[in-house]
Amino acid sequence: MAASAGKQGSPAEGATTQTVTGGSKPLHRFLRAEPKTVGIALILMGCCLFMFGIPLKMEVLDNSSNLYSSFWLGILYFMCGVVYILAERGPTKKTVTASLALSIISILGSIFAAIDFIKGLVFTSVSYRFRMYDLYSYNVTHLHSVVERHYTSVYSLEAVFLFHSLIGGVILIVMTVFARVALRSSRTQTVVVMRNLPSAE
């Protein structure tokens, strides 16, 4: 009985066995970045950028809304968030690849938008100084507080947008690294074939 059991447990002579190296589920390395949590955060950031961009677009002063930076950046963040959530629910090569591609596009968009937001901050600050100089020159003191509140609100929105773009850019860079590592490990996954040669006896 013991001898027969031992023969059944060992592979037959001349048989071929295959072993997969590089991890059984390499795409699941992308899940270490918590894509669902990150996706929810990016969706909220995208909604904030889009909604806060509406009052800034109604502003008569020149600002970042002239290029609709907060609107298309908010849409990019929203799309990234949705793709990240889908990637966690079903981590396939297509979803991780889509996450990687959209992350790279969003990183470039974040850089461009951050530059635009910085330009908006500089322009608002310079315009505020010129406006206050005009008020002091014409001695219109009763409008100082009104003008100051107006420019402060515009400046604050530009600063919030810049903060969102920088934080979003860092998050997207991290997610890009995780997606790249997951895809690379799936491509380097190899199959080792072992043959049990018959014994000389």
The amount of helix comes to over 70%
Radius of gyration in whole Å, from Cα?
29 Å
Mean pLDDT level: 79
Low-confidence stretches: 1-11, 14-24, 188-194
> Hey, roughly how much beta strand do the residues contain?
5-15%
Q: Looking across the biggest beta sheet, what order are the strands in? A: 1-2
What is the overall shape?
elongated
Give the H and E element order.
HEHHHHE
Q: Counting H and I runs of at least 4 residues, what is the number of helices?
A: 5
CA distance, first residue to last residue: 23 Å
Looking at the chains present, what oligomeric state does this protein adopt?
Answer: single chain
Q: List how many beta strands DSSP finds.
A: 2
Biggest beta sheet attributes: 2 strands, antiparallel
Structural category is mainly alpha
Topology (elements, then pairings):
Blueprint (H helix, E strand, L loop, with lengths): L1 H8 L6 E6 L13 H23 L11 H21 L3 H45 L6 H44 L2 E6 L6
Antiparallel strand pairs: 1-2
Helix pairs in contact: 2-3, 2-5, 3-4, 4-5
